[in-house]
Amino acid sequence: MEFGKLQSMVELDLSRCSQLGCLPHSIVDLSQLKTFLLFECHKLKNLPMEFGKLQSLVELDFFHCSQLGSLPNSIMDLSQLKTFQLWGCSKLENLPMEFGILQSLLEVDLSCCYELGCLMDSIVNLSQLKTF
């Protein structure tokens, strides 16, 4: 699927796409996207390396994407991100080292991320964080 032509899209809900193993690269061209919902995409394993190009994102929901093993470092470019839902991403092993630079974050949920090794020290820099 070619997403690059949907320049005005502000919300994309791919939740419960049970066969979705990866996102098409063109997803990063949705420059106006504010809300991206991917909950219960059980086969989603990784994200495009340039995922951080979605710089208008405010809400990102990977609720129960149980096969998601890592996040690209470019996710640190999501400077407008306020809600980051990772509940049930049981294969997620780590967060990018610079996680604390996401200063706009208000809510982060890492519940049931069983493989998550340790939290980065930089997380204390999330001064706007209300829920963790």
What are the SSEs and their pairings?
Blueprint: E1 11-13, E2 35-37, E3 59-61, E4 83-85, E5 107-109
Parallel strand pairs: 1-2, 2-3, 3-4, 4-5
Description:
By secondary structure, the chain is mostly loops. It has one domain (1-132): Ribonuclease Inhibitor (Leucine-rich repeat, LRR (right-handed beta-alpha superhelix)), CATH 3.80.10.10. 0% of the residues lie in helices and 11% in strands. The chain contains no helices and five strands. The protein has strands spanning 11-13, 35-37, 59-61, 83-85, 107-109. A five-stranded parallel sheet has the order 1-2-3-4-5, with no helix packed on it. The chain starts with 10 loop residues before the first strand and ends in a 23-residue tail after the last strand.
- Provide the number of structural domains: 1
Structural class: little secondary structure
- CATH top level class name: Alpha Beta
* CATH third-level topology: Leucine-rich repeat, LRR (right-handed beta-alpha superhelix)
* Tally of individual helices: 0
**Biggest sheet details:** 5 strands, parallel
At the fourth level of CATH, the homologous superfamily is Ribonuclease Inhibitor
Shape: globular
Return Rg in Å. Answer: 14 Å
Query: What is the oligomeric state here?
Result: single chain
Number of strands: 5
Query: What's the SSE pattern?
Result: EEEEE
Q: State the end-to-end CA separation.
A: 35 Å
| Low-pLDDT residue intervals, each spanning 5 or more residues | none
Helix share, percent: under 10%
Name the CATH architecture: Alpha-Beta Horseshoe
Mean pLDDT: 92
Strand order of the largest sheet: 1-2-3-4-5
